[in-house]
Amino acid sequence: MFQKMMTGALIAGIGAGLLAAVLHFAFIQNYILLGEQYETGELVHFAAPEAAPATAEGADHSHAEAASEAHGHGAHEHGDGDVSPFQRNALTVGFTVLLYVAYGIMLTVGFAIAAQFGKRITATEGALWGLAGFAAFQLAPGMGLAPELPGSAAADLAARQVWWWSTVVATGLGIAAMAYGRSVITTLAGAALIAAPHVVGAPLLDGFYGYAPTEVGAIFSSRVLGVGLAVWVALGWLAGRQWARGEGGGAAA
């Protein structure tokens, strides 16, 4: 049974990862390349400050779906020079697939836990889980730390990572409490968990600056979130479908 669970998670993760890679190249890649041109000084925005520090943190994206873009940006620099476009794109595809395989395993483990409490997981139910995954891993963290285009300034990386993971965990637990709780107290506790990271607030800079135009950053962030929504729902649907087809689906029934 464990082998079938992991096989289903692997199939769902690969399918979702390939979809994410296609959407990345279609809607996001060009804006990363444009941001890198501003970051390296090849292009100059009229409002770019002279003393803005250019650090690797500026290319770091503050959510898990944007991790693939950050990886692609990091792959741009190589020990002996720039990697070829083919190598860069291949690394982006590979990393994205691995990322969504990991997400697929997490969803499948969640299905198994839900099945122990008598919950039946179908493809439709899986899509709702995928929507919840998007809310926990991208939407909620993005409300405090938007996906960052190369050439953008950012607060301390360690502080952002702590806040990001805290938000993911709190949002995931909060959604679970609200979805499966059986009392008003549980629902209120779930809502409080979702709100808590935003009450504390994400780590931000004292001032805002960066090399890339804000208009480009805004389009980039919106596209990252839009792609994330589509891929997470697809991942949940695929994982739920695989679960329902295997022995896990029978156990959940």
User: Helix coverage percent of residues?
Assistant: over 70%
Class by helix and strand content?
mainly alpha
Give the overall form. flat
Mean pLDDT across residues:
84
Number of strands: 0
Largest sheet: none
Would you list the SSEs in sequence order as H and E?
HHHHHHHHH
Low-confidence stretches: 51-80, 248-253
Ends apart, CA distance between termini: 15 Å
- The value of Rg in angstroms is 19 Å
Strand percentage, roughly?
A: under 5%
How many helices? The count is 9
Provide a quick synopsis of the model.
With 253 residues, this protein is mostly helical. The chain has helices spanning 2-27, 29-40, 67-74, 85-116, 123-144, 157-180, 184-200, 214-245, 247-252. 71% of the residues lie in helices and 0% in strands.
Structural account:
With 253 residues, the protein is mainly α. The chain has nine helices and no strands. Helix 1 packs antiparallel against helix 8 and helix 5 packs antiparallel against helix 8. The protein is flat, with a radius of gyration of 19 Å.
Topology, element by element:
Layout: H1 2-27, H2 29-40, H3 67-74, H4 85-116, H5 123-144, H6 157-180, H7 184-200, H8 214-245, H9 247-252
Helix pairs in contact: 1-4, 1-8, 2-8, 3-4, 4-8, 5-6, 5-8, 6-7
List keywords for this structure.
single chain; 253 residues; mainly alpha
